[in-house]
């Protein structure tokens, strides 16, 4: 039978198969879904950051028009915390006691006939607090810290000796602020019980996890819980956990015996569904005079909630970014009375890369060597920690192609040497080595009586093109036209797939779909091989290919039959096969598993007097292994670069230092790039299919964001001579 | 649900009567501020008097002034031929002031009366706000306050007046036309606004129940050059960190007439008359511009988050003076 390598058609820039649904408003996003008889809920949130509730008076709220119930810690039964997932612990269960752990913590949920009634009544809930002095920042002596939270701290060689042997060293501290994921779609949960059966339409990137969590928290079998997330208005990681508001909506639906819909407000999105946590990083680099790295030391501290965890090893990536004999990376987290952080597009790496790639630029300046040349001289030809060859690595090609497209060779070496009127013009670059990630996945592929096929999986399309690439993949593997393949996604009743996150879904789910297609073709072949009525009777499997909507003899396409004909003759309405994929094991392969690589080249203009920073050009080159759809992959990288521009010069979730209240929790006050802030973005893919992945795919969901902040910061230095080590880079730092 | 009465009277007298000095009544025009604040629970009027269809829309040029009806939209005024030809600073302030969607809704009268964007004012969960709850204190002075004011403020309130076009209009000595139960009156815009230093909850001299019916904008002398510079982190769709409206009449290299408005810095649209005095009769040189800018921000009152604005405001004004005067060296 044929395999994926034989299929050159993959990669075509096919339009999104769900595009027409989206642009005509027919795609049911979570907050669009309504059920007959549904009630609406609104949250009441804490206005202190630490302490206790001393009195919670719901009398007025309960009397308000349309109110059905008010949930508080007095009414909600003791619920267990959700399970440990492959990404870590579940958030604490909501409304379990009178303790306040952060500003914006849910303290009550009002359920009413309409959303307006619920919102109005929520303002009538009177909460009295006994406030405590909150811990809000790293430097609070009362703060509890956690060293090496994930066991990822690394040591290689002798970093002190390496630094001592260096001709040139850099020692700098970099800070990054809280950023908020802020998907455009407000997160929404619609929960409906029918007896012990629970159906939930949820804004999640991981339906299977939400199902498991709800089953455990509410004490029902997993098979009786169905979680649907067929479309999502963005997530950027915020949809990777079953948040307290999800639990509350389900509890409320049980309490009032009706479906309950809860849609968060924009300010609530800042405190309820995570954020990229702020951090402080110290990087020490040492190099010999010939620009050879001899030491990398990277320490990070990031902020964490008091009773929750988050995976943010800022420094870990620095252990494998460059060939270097002496390396130390160490991460630490400090607990504070802040809302729980969560993965936000390229968690840890977005922040860690900013520090490392800024320090590399500083080192290049100190060595008086071109920043690109410094990176090439220290390129990790093999995995720096394992010493194994990479399963794929086109980082050098990223640098070469990017430099050529951008015109890097024409960049003057000295900072502050180009201007255009009152604009100082500068150029900077950064490299990215994104880590490999993959989780096990299942999928089912079914051919039906009409001759078409369906892909089914609980995995969801966060908006990046999963529907499209799975449809493409299945169509190619089964020899069907695109329009005869449908993908059903985002339904926990379907075969379990991992989260849309970690840049790992396409490889995991795509491989499972490929496996299912192969098994399905095998089953079809079994049917026809022993069937005297089939034109393929007695054929050797090696001589049969999937083409033209069915099975054909290789080299003799006239001899074969369609799937519809096979199913009809055998009296089957459909024939399906389950497929699975498991992550590759590096030791078995003798290869280091490579994630995506990339290089960004940025040009900025800085107003000499006013400090205004404008990004005028970004060239990005990505090695994502095999690209299944050039169009959706490019869109994804463009989105990543825009997210990187936001991180570099705009995004800053500001917490009031005394109250713990987020001071800019609206889209008017929390700045993300608008169209006018985004220049033309030049995105190119290079590289070969990855050798360790069945499809050769490496995810591109996050790599596009990583490195943009450093490239821009380095360009700002080149433009102005001012090194800004704190994000976002705003005019205040450049006056 | 919080309910309110909605009425849409015919004519200005009907609107005034429907308002009738009732403290719980508010006028509704474009609604771009009023409705936001109601949704946020900051304003809770018992009655909204919709004036949006009253005959107070459109502009006329008469001799030396442009008279603008209060319900003229920002977009309509920005494309008015007189504004395009004679008042570049007004046009630019309008176009930089809001997205086209907002400009099509928001009215000039409403723009002048827009409330501060201070996030402490706009969140009723914050207890300390002298503007919202007189005497309760100010949470912004000890909080992160990058978007706050440095002129006409005190520890009682550092809220910013966020209008762009009002900055241009104070520079031009625009006059507000008002009708109320006590009859009609005219107030120069420079005397219309009240600084936040004393009673932050009182922002202007409009009495409750009075209605702005129009604005008269004196046209600067022929030969005057003008423009509006808005400095902000984003290219578009953001309130000003600082801004400067400048109109200059320069003859033989000497400034004959200087009009300046500063935005992003004041509790009111700021008219730095001391800076105008420095410029008046002086040569149009960078040194003089810098001296004027120093005078413009004299008396600034800052908190840690707003300290940078003093220098930024200076540089913004110098840049705009140089741009308008075409002094490039």
TrEMBL record, chain A:
<protein>
    <submittedName>
        <fullName>Xanthine dehydrogenase family protein molybdopterin-binding subunit</fullName>
    </submittedName>
</protein>
<dbReference type="Pfam" id="PF02738">
    <property type="entry name" value="MoCoBD_1"/>
</dbReference>
<dbReference type="InterPro" id="IPR016208">
    <property type="entry name" value="Ald_Oxase/xanthine_DH-like"/>
</dbReference>
<dbReference type="InterPro" id="IPR036856">
    <property type="entry name" value="Ald_Oxase/Xan_DH_a/b_sf"/>
</dbReference>
<feature type="region of interest" description="Disordered">
    <location>
        <begin position="532"/>
        <end position="553"/>
    </location>
</feature>
<dbReference type="Pfam" id="PF01315">
    <property type="entry name" value="Ald_Xan_dh_C"/>
</dbReference>
<keyword id="KW-0560">Oxidoreductase</keyword>
<keyword id="KW-0500">Molybdenum</keyword>
<dbReference type="GO" id="GO:0016491">
    <property type="term" value="F:oxidoreductase activity"/>
</dbReference>
<dbReference type="InterPro" id="IPR046867">
    <property type="entry name" value="AldOxase/xan_DH_MoCoBD2"/>
</dbReference>
<dbReference type="InterPro" id="IPR037165">
    <property type="entry name" value="AldOxase/xan_DH_Mopterin-bd_sf"/>
</dbReference>
<feature type="domain" description="Aldehyde oxidase/xanthine dehydrogenase a/b hammerhead">
    <location>
        <begin position="24"/>
        <end position="133"/>
    </location>
</feature>
<dbReference type="InterPro" id="IPR000674">
    <property type="entry name" value="Ald_Oxase/Xan_DH_a/b"/>
</dbReference>
<dbReference type="InterPro" id="IPR008274">
    <property type="entry name" value="AldOxase/xan_DH_MoCoBD1"/>
</dbReference>
<dbReference type="GO" id="GO:0005506">
    <property type="term" value="F:iron ion binding"/>
</dbReference>
<dbReference type="Pfam" id="PF20256">
    <property type="entry name" value="MoCoBD_2"/>
</dbReference>
TrEMBL record, chain B:
<feature type="domain" description="FAD-binding PCMH-type">
    <location>
        <begin position="1"/>
        <end position="222"/>
    </location>
</feature>
<dbReference type="InterPro" id="IPR036318">
    <property type="entry name" value="FAD-bd_PCMH-like_sf"/>
</dbReference>
<dbReference type="InterPro" id="IPR016167">
    <property type="entry name" value="FAD-bd_PCMH_sub1"/>
</dbReference>
<dbReference type="InterPro" id="IPR016166">
    <property type="entry name" value="FAD-bd_PCMH"/>
</dbReference>
<keyword id="KW-0560">Oxidoreductase</keyword>
<dbReference type="InterPro" id="IPR016169">
    <property type="entry name" value="FAD-bd_PCMH_sub2"/>
</dbReference>
<dbReference type="InterPro" id="IPR036683">
    <property type="entry name" value="CO_DH_flav_C_dom_sf"/>
</dbReference>
<dbReference type="Pfam" id="PF00941">
    <property type="entry name" value="FAD_binding_5"/>
</dbReference>
<dbReference type="InterPro" id="IPR005107">
    <property type="entry name" value="CO_DH_flav_C"/>
</dbReference>
<dbReference type="InterPro" id="IPR051312">
    <property type="entry name" value="Diverse_Substr_Oxidored"/>
</dbReference>
<dbReference type="Pfam" id="PF03450">
    <property type="entry name" value="CO_deh_flav_C"/>
</dbReference>
<dbReference type="InterPro" id="IPR002346">
    <property type="entry name" value="Mopterin_DH_FAD-bd"/>
</dbReference>
<dbReference type="GO" id="GO:0071949">
    <property type="term" value="F:FAD binding"/>
</dbReference>
<dbReference type="GO" id="GO:0016491">
    <property type="term" value="F:oxidoreductase activity"/>
</dbReference>
<protein>
    <submittedName>
        <fullName>Xanthine dehydrogenase family protein subunit M</fullName>
    </submittedName>
</protein>
């Amino acid at each position: 039978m044929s395999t994926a390598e034989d299929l050159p058609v993959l990669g075509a820039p096919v339009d999104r198969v769900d595009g027409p649904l989206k642009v005509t408003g027919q795609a049911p996003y979570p907050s669009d879904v309504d059920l007959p008889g549904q009630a609406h809920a609104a949250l009441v949130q804490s206005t202190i950051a630490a302490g206790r509730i001393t009195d919670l008076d719901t009398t007025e709220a309960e009397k308000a028009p349309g109110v059905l119930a008010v949930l508080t810690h007095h009414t909600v039964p003791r619920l267990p915390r959700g399970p440990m997932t492959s990404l870590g612990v579940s958030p604490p269960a909501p409304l379990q006691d009178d303790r306040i752990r952060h500003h914006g913590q849910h303290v009550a949920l009002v359920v009413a006939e309409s959303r307006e009634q619920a919102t109005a009544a929520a303002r009538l809930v009177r909460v009295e607090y006994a406030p405590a002095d909150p811990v809000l920042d790293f430097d609070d002596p009362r703060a509890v810290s956690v060293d090496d939270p994930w066991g990822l701290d690394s040591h290689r060689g002798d970093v002190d000796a390496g630094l001592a042997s260096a001709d040139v060293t850099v020692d700098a501290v970099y800070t990054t602020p809280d950023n908020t994921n802020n998907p455009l779609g407000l997160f929404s949960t619609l929960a409906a019980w029918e007896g012990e059966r629970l159906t939930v339409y949820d804004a999640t990137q991981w339906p299977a996890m939400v199902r498991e969590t709800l089953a455990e928290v509410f004490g029902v079998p997993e098979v009786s819980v169905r979680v649907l997330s067929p479309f999502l208005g963005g997530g950027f990681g915020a949809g990777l956990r079953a948040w307290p508001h999800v639990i509350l909506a389900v509890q409320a639906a049980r309490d009032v015996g009706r479906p309950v819909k809860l849609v968060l407000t924009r300010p609530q999105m800042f405190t309820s569904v995570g954020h990229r946590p702020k951090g402080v990083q110290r990087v020490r680099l040492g190099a010999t005079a010939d620009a050879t790295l001899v030491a990398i030391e990277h320490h990070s501290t990031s902020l964490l909630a008091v009773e929750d965890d988050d995976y943010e090893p800022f420094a870990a990536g620095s252990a494998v970014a460059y060939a270097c004999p002496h390396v130390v990376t160490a991460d630490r987290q400090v607990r504070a009375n802040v809302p729980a952080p969560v993965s936000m597009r390229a968690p840890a790496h977005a922040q860690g890369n900013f520090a490392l790639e800024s320090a590399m630029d500083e080192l290049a300046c100190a060595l008086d060597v071109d920043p690109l040349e410094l990176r090439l001289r220290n390129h990790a030809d093999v995995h720096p920690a394992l010493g194994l060859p990479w399963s794929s690595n086109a980082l050098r090609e990223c640098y070469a192609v990017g430099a050529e497209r951008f015109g890097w060779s024409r960049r003057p070496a000295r900072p502050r040497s180009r201007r255009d009127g009152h604009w100082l013009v500068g150029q900077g670059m950064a490299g990215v080595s994104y880590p490999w990630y993959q989780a096990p996945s299942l999928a089912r592929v079914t051919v039906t009586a009409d001759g078409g096929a369906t892909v089914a999986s609980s995995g969801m399309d966060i908006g990046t093109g999963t529907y499209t690439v799975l449809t493409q993949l299945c169509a190619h593997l089964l020899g069907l036209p695109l329009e005869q393949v449908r993908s059903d996604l985002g339904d926990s009743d379907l075969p379990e797939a991992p989260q849309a996150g970690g840049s790992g879904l396409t490889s995991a789910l795509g491989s499972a779909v490929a496996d299912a297609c192969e098994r399905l073709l095998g089953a079809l072949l079994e049917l026809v091989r022993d069937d005297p009525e089939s034109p393929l009777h007695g054929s050797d499997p090696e001589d049969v290919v999937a083409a033209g909507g069915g099975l054909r003899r290789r080299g003799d396409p006239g001899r074969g039959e369609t799937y519809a004909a096979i199913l009809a003759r055998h009296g089957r309405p459909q024939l399906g096969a389950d497929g699975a994929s498991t992550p590759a094991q590096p030791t078995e392969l003798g290869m280091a598993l490579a994630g995506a690589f990339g290089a960004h080249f940025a040009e900025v203009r800085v107003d000499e007097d006013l400090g205004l920073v404008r990004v005028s050009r970004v060239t990005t080159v990505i090695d994502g292994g095999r690209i299944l759809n050039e169009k959706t992959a490019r869109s994804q990288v463009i989105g990543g670069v825009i997210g990187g521009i936001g991180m570099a010069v705009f995004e800053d979730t500001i917490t009031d230092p005394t109250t713990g209240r987020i001071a800019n929790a609206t889209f008017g006050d929390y700045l993300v790039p608008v169209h006018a802030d985004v220049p033309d973005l030049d995105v190119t893919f290079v590289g070969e299919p990855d050798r360790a992945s069945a499809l050769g795919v490496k995810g591109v969901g996050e790599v596009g964001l990583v490195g943009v902040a450093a490239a821009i910061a380095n360009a700002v230095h080149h433009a102005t001579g001012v090194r800004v080590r704190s994000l976002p880079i705003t005019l205040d730092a450049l006056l | 649900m919080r309910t309110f009465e909605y009425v849409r009277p015919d004519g200005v007298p009907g609107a005034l009567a429907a308002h009738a000095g009732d403290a719980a009544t508010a006028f509704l025009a474009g609604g771009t501020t009023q409705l936001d604040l109601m949704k946020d629970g900051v304003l809770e009027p018992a009655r909204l008097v919709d004036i949006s269809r009253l005959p107070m829309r459109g502009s006329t040029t008469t001799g030396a002034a442009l008279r603008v009806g209060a319900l003229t939209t920002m977009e309509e005024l920005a494309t008015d031929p007189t504004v395009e030809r004679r008042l570049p600073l007004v046009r630019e302030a309008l176009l930089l002031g809001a997205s086209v969607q907002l400009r099509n809704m928001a009215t000039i009268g409403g723009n002048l009366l827009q409330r501060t964007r201070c996030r402490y004012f706009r969140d009723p969960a914050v207890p300390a706000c002298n503007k919202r709850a007189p005497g309760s204190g100010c949470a912004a002075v000890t909080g992160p306050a990058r978007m706050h004011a440095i002129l006409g403020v005190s520890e009682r309130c550092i809220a910013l007046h966020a209008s762009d076009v009002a900055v241009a209009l104070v520079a031009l000595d625009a006059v507000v036309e008002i009708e109320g139960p006590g009859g009609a009156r005219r107030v120069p815009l420079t005397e219309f606004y009240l600084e936040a230093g004393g009673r932050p909850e009182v922002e202007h001299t409009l009495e409750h129940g009075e209605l702005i019916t129009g604005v008269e904008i004196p046209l600067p002398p022929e030969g005057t050059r003008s423009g509006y510079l808005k400095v902000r982190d984003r290219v578009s769709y953001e309130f000003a960190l600082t801004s400067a409206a400048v109109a200059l009449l320069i003859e033989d290299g000497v400034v004959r007439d200087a009009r300046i408005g500063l935005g992003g810095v004041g509790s009111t649209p700021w008219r730095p008359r001391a800076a105008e005095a420095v410029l008046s009769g002086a040569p149009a040189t960078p040194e003089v511009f810098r001296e004027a800018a120093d005078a413009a921000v004299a008396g600034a009152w800052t908190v840690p988050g707003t300290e940078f604005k003093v220098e930024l405001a200076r540089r913004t004004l110098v840049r705009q003076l140089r741009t308008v005067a075409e002094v490039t060296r």
